[in-house]
């Protein structure tokens, strides 16, 4: 009997997880406690495993990829193409978002009672977001630049909160890769071979971890569902959430056009190959946690050469967030429509385009990061400080489901650009290597 493809297994896990979450929610507190004590930990273990391999994967693939380029000028060409495509797609995402929110106007006509009930339910959560954004803002203007250059690479693997600093690791890997090109081939070979072998081992780890994905997705979805016990508020925010989802859907359409027109590949085939990464992005809300799977799909299934994916994807997971910037544009204007309509000027919308672009570059690839950076977008247009907690409280209830959706777009955007850059450098292969089957298991 033909084995069920991985994406179907993940979808089944997801649907069962949602149903199970609703069932436990209907039981009440004891059901929810059961999910958080006995089910959710399996989702956490899965995310931990993916994060565990993310750092060695970035190091190995980037160092190997750069050293394979053999020529420093190629790095420049690839770097410029990657960054310009990332900026281009992000600008398009923000413009799509702003057009939808200005046309649909989901924030007009919300009753004062609704605003009040949302405010009292979510205001303290909003304060946490504002506090996190303040830490980013208090730093000097060049702090983000300074933060790219590590003084101790071991500290970059784990900061004070235990999180790796992706940009520092990317910088270090690029630096090592470039220097490997500058030393004699004989001297470079042992290190290149080491990273090549590390890359293979990490990719095998992705395969093994992915066998657990359908069960983990079940646990992650059940845990998400038990958090939504106030569905009445969700319904009130439906038209705002609908605008974000519509914008994100249009972005998928835009990527598929790029795939068809630029790489001449079938959009359906692209979606089928990348779907396990999209489903994981949806379940984990983290492009960083999804990165190992995105790399495996793009290299082994979409035919992008490792030299390209090893550079484009880690950089993309860190700086390219089309879904996040689209959401930030819509959320900022929606909040203004509800509580600060006098701020809705053309100039402010232009400022939103610029700051949402920068904010999505600065957003960490983890759950809710986009909402933290939204504070900075709002403050850049002079949004009144006293209204900020109310503004964020307004969108808090639907933030998690929207985060899940925008992370799918973030990951799809990275995969699309990696295919385009590969095509432009003649590094897009026609077929996937034979030794992998559709379940991402080795058949050898
Ligand atoms: N969760 C998103 C990501 O990891 C970032 C965000 O929009 O909050 O890509």
The name of the CATH topology is: Proton glutamate symport protein
From the 3D coordinates, which CATH architecture would you assign? Answer: Orthogonal Bundle
Supply the number of structural domains: 1
The end-to-end span amounts to 19 Å
The ordered string of helix (H) and strand (E) elements is: HHHHHHHHHHHHHHHHHHH
Number of strands: 0
Helix content: over 70%
CATH class: Mainly Alpha
> Which ligands does the model contain, each kind named once?
aspartic acid
- Structural class computed from helices and strand pairing: mainly alpha
Put simply, the count of helices is 19
Q: CATH H-level name... which superfamily?
A: Sodium:dicarboxylate symporter
Low-confidence stretches: 433-444
Characterize the biggest β-sheet: none
Radius of gyration: 22 Å
Into which percentage range does the β-strand content fall?
Answer: under 5%
Mean pLDDT: 89
Overall 3D shape: globular
């Amino acid at each position: 009997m033909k084995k069920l493809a991985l994406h179907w297994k993940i979808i089944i896990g997801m649907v069962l997880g949602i149903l199970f979450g609703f069932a436990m929610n209907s039981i009440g507190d004891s059901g929810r406690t059961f999910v958080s004590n006995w089910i959710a930990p399996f989702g956490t273990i899965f995310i931990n495993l993916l994060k565990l391999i993310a750092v060695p994967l970035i190091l190995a693939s980037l160092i190997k990829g750069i050293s394979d380029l053999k020529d420093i000028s190629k790095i420049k060409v690839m770097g410029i193409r990657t960054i310009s495509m990332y900026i281009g797609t992000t600008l398009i995402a923000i413009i799509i978002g702003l057009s939808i929110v200005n046309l649909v106007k989901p924030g007009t006509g919300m009753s004062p009672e609704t605003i009040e009930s949302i405010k009292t339910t979510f205001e303290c959560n909003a304060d946490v977001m504002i506090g996190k954004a303040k830490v980013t803002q208090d730093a000097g203007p060049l702090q983000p630049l300074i933060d790219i250059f590590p003084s101790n690479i071991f500290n970059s693997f784990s900061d004070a909160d235990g999180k790796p600093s992706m940009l520092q690791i990317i910088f270090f890997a690029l630096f090592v890769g470039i220097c490997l090109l500058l030393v004699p081939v004989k001297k470079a070979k042992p290190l290149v071979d080491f990273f090549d072998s590390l890359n293979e081992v990490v990719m095998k780890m992705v395969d093994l971890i992915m066998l657990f994905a359908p069960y983990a997705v079940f646990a992650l979805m059940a845990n998400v569902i038990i958090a939504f016990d106030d569905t009445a508020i969700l319904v009130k925010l439906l038209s705002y959430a609908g605008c974000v989802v519509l914008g994100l859907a249009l972005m998928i359409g835009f990527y598929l056009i790029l795939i068809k027109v630029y790489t001449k590949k079938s959009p359906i085939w692209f979606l089928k190959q990348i779907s396990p990464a999209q489903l994981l992005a949806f379940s984990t809300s983290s492009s960083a946690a999804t990165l190992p799977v995105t790399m495996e799909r793009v290299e082994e299934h979409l035919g992008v050469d490792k030299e390209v994916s090893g550079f484009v994807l880690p950089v993309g997971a860190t700086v390219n967030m089309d879904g996040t910037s689209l959401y930030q544009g819509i959320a900022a204007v929606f909040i203004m429509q509800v509580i600060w309509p006098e701020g809705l000027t053309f100039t402010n919308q232009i400022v939103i385009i610029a700051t949402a672009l920068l904010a999505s570059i600065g957003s960490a690839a983890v759950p809710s990061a986009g909402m933290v950076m939204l504070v900075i977008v709002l403050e850049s247009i002079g949004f009144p400080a006293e209204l900020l907690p109310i503004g964020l409280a307004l969108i808090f209830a639907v933030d998690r489901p929207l985060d899940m959706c925008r992370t799918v777009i973030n990951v799809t955007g990275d995969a699309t650009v990696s295919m385009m850059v590969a095509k432009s450098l003649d590094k897009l292969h026609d077929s996937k290597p034979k030794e992998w089957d559709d379940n991402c298991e080795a058949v050898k």
